[in-house]
């Protein structure tokens, strides 16, 4: 495990096998100083009980303006700490109450459970079309051919992003969520902000039947989202709305291929699928380390006191494999009692899109298992590569054979 005088290093060992990395930390240093190759410094929290408590602790802030100041204090001159364009970061995931409360209320009014439920027929239609193409090919990259286009198409249609713009938007998203060069982050975040402003202006002038048009016009006691808030909210919903599910579908299929007994159990009893989705979320959740937080006053975590003004990174991936909460946590068990995992976070920042991600995963995985009698990895397991990201846990590709 990489280390330095400034703490544990988030380096190659962390990226190549985060589960082994976190296993050591949970046992030896569940709240420890960390450093990243880009100069970032903070604290890493890895145990379930600590993670759940901190995710709901009001002494841990997500205020993006204050976080920027802390990052600049750490960064080299001319480096803004790798933040995306300011216009994209003013959303509810980067806000504390009362700002967060207000933004979430407005979004919840448009992005309802009923809205998600209405999407089922379209998700089933897109799934069937993608499975048809996979059947013709026989050997495919599951990420490129299925896990990626399904949720990307759904969220873009939901928000009203034209089909011809989706590949461009997806490329921007990949840059912003990976450990990309600062210049690339600046370039792509600025391009995405400009694109979203133009898209929203179009919805304001000519509303259509989509969520973005509804967000432009939704109000609560006369309150509406400002132009800047709309851009940031569109960015959050678009990026979070497809990245989570892309990685969930890919990781779930790999988990089943690695555990043929669980694949057989799921084929034998499809009613286990909703339960299995929760186990996939626990076993290999799509978010590795939760989005950035910092202490506004000293916070004690076990035997460690984290001072005020320090960044805190909470590993959802590690918390969900904590043997103190989940017996035999490194074993996939689609019959495990559901609930309790932190894959979608906890507290006021619990993922607003969780119902949509669950619905998409259930339709996608159910369709895949019903359509194909045989699923097999098309290549050697050691050739698989995970994305170069501290935030996202997802496969770059998953070559499979279907029959």
From TrEMBL:
Record GO terms (molecular function): heme binding; iron ion binding; monooxygenase activity; oxidoreductase activity, acting on paired donors, with incorporation or reduction of molecular oxygen
Gene3D superfamilies xref list: Cytochrome P450 (1.10.630.10)
Record key words, sorted: Heme, Iron, Metal-binding, Monooxygenase, Oxidoreductase
Database matches in InterPro entries: Cyt_P450, Cyt_P450_B, Cyt_P450_CS, Cyt_P450_sf
Record has Transcription as a keyword: no
Superkingdom of this protein's organism: Bacteria
Pathway: Antibiotic biosynthesis; vancomycin biosynthesis
Functional note: Involved in the coupling of aromatic side chains of the heptapeptide of vancomycin.
Family note: Belongs to the cytochrome P450 family.
Stated name of the protein: Cytochrome P450
């Amino acid at each position: 495990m990489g280390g330095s005088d400034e703490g544990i290093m988030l380096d190659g060992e962390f990226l190549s096998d985060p589960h082994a990395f976190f296993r050591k930390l949970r046992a030896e240093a569940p709240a420890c100083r960390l450093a990243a190759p880009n100069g970032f410094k903070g604290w890493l929290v890895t145990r379930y009980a600590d993670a759940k408590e901190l995710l709901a602790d009001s002494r841990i802030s997500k205020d993006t303006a204050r976080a920027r100041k802390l990052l600049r204090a750490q960064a080299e001159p001319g480096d803004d700490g790798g933040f995306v364009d300011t216009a994209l970061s003013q959303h509810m995931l980067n806000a504390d109450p009362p700002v967060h409360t207000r933004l979430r209320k407005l979004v919840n009014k448009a992005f309802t459970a009923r809205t998600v439920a209405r999407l089922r027929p379209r998700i089933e239609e897109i799934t069937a079309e993608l499975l048809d193409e996979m059947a013709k090919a026989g050997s495919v990259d599951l990420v490129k051919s299925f896990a990626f286009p399904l949720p990307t198409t759904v969220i873009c249609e939901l928000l009203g992003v034209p089909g011809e713009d989706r590949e461009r938007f997806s490329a921007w998203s990949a840059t912003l969520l990976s450990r990309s060069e600062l210049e690339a982050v600046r370039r792509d975040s600025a391009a995405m902000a400009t694109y979203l402003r133009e898209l929203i202006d179009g919805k304001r002038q000519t509303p259509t039947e989509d969520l973005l048009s509804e967000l432009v016009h939704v109000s609560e006691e006369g309150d509406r989202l400002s132009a800047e808030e709309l851009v940031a909210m569109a960015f959050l919903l678009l990026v979070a709305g497809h990245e989570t599910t892309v990685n969930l579908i890919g990781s779930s299929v790999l988990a089943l291929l690695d555990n043929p007994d669980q694949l057989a159990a799921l084929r034998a009893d499809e009613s286990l699928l909703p339960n299995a989705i929760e186990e996939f979320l626990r076993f290999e959740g799509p978010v590795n380390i939760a989005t950035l937080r910092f202490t506004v006053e000293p916070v004690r975590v076990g035997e460690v006191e984290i001072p005020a003004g320090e960044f805190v990174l909470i590993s959802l991936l590690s918390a969900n494999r904590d043997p103190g909460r989940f017996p035999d946590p490194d074993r996939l068990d689609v019959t495990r009692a559901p609930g309790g995992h932190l894959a979608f976070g906890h507290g006021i920042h619990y993922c607003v899109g969780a119902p949509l991600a669950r619905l998409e995963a259930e339709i996608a995985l159910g369709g895949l298992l019903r359509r194909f009698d045989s699923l097999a990895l098309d290549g050697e397991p050691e050739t698989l590569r995970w994305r170069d990201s501290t935030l996202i846990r997802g496969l770059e590709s998953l070559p499979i054979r279907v029959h």
